[in-house]
Design a protein that fits this description.
251 residues, alpha/beta, Purple Acid Phosphatase, chain A, domain 2
Length: 251
């Protein structure tokens, strides 16, 4: 990917729109929309690193109600020629082809490597990577199994979506106390994962979400691990203009 010198690349993650309720989520949606509007003229590309929604499931002909402002803005950005890349998180892991067919936005279910202006970026949501967390890893295998998705589709959307939204909020999948506590470099599992990946190949930047905590940590020679934070407590995002910056949106 080659980005024009007068443009920047933006990264954002963990908006969790719809949680804890649609009414309480709306101010955050509007703030994120203001951010997209403010950055549009500078935007050479946009990476959304998962958990844009607190719950998302696509039936064959039905998607969850709401989020029209955000979806409309993403469609407008994409129609204007700005590349957008979406990585599913643990809340919207049941994303299927709606973003692809309706918005023209590719959807990734696994981390991807991008070469951007000669720098190598390893990008993903971050859930299920690194050591430990075996309970979640087993649960994710069940949830992403095609048979599990087939069974869930047999629930009427009014029941299935409401159940999914309830369980998502009930299970603290919107930021819990452990998500906003720095565990130390030696215990941050995405730091450990990044260091392990560096034994296989060099990456200039590891960009993740999921932890809900803004972090910028050197993990090797000329290699940094960036966690983007969230749009619940921090309203932080990443910006690359030849160097990577972790910034807070104040408006």
């Amino acid at each position: 990917m080659q980005i024009q010198t007068d443009k920047k690349i933006f990264f954002a993650s963990d908006q969790h729109f719809g949680a804890p309720t649609s009414e309480k989520s709306l101010p955050r949606e509007k703030k994120f929309l203001r951010w997209l509007n403010d950055k549009e003229s500078e935007m050479g590309a946009l990476f959304i690193l998962g958990d844009l929604f607190d719950f998302w499931f696509e039936y064959k002909t039905v998607v969850p109600k709401g989020f029209v402002r955000i979806l409309g803005k993403l469609a407008q950005l994409r129609d204007s020629g700005i590349p957008i890349y979406f990585f599913v998180g643990n809340h919207d892991l049941w994303m299927d082809d709606y973003f692809i067919t309706e918005l023209g936005i590719p959807v990734f279910h696994q981390p991807q490597v991008f070469d951007i202006n000669g720098k190598t970026f390893f990008i993903g949501h971050g859930d299920g990577l690194g050591p430990g967390d075996y309970g979640y890893k087993r649960m994710k295998k069940v949830f992403t199994n095609p048979f599990s998705k087939w069974l869930f589709r047999w629930l009427h959307p009014d029941i299935g979506v409401r159940l999914g939204q309830y369980l998502s909020v009930k299970n603290k999948l919107i930021s819990g106390a452990e998500d906003v506590t720095f565990l130390g470099e030696e215990n941050e599992w995405l730091v450990l994962y990044s260091k392990r990946k560096l034994q296989e190949a060099h990456y200039d930047y590891f960009i993740f979400g999921h932890r809900h905590l803004p972090m910028d940590i050197e993990v090797g020679k000329n290699s940094r691990y960036i966690n983007l934070g969230d749009w619940i407590n921090y309203f932080t995002y990443g910006m690359y203009d030849g160097a990577f910056h972790l910034e807070k949106y104040e408006s």
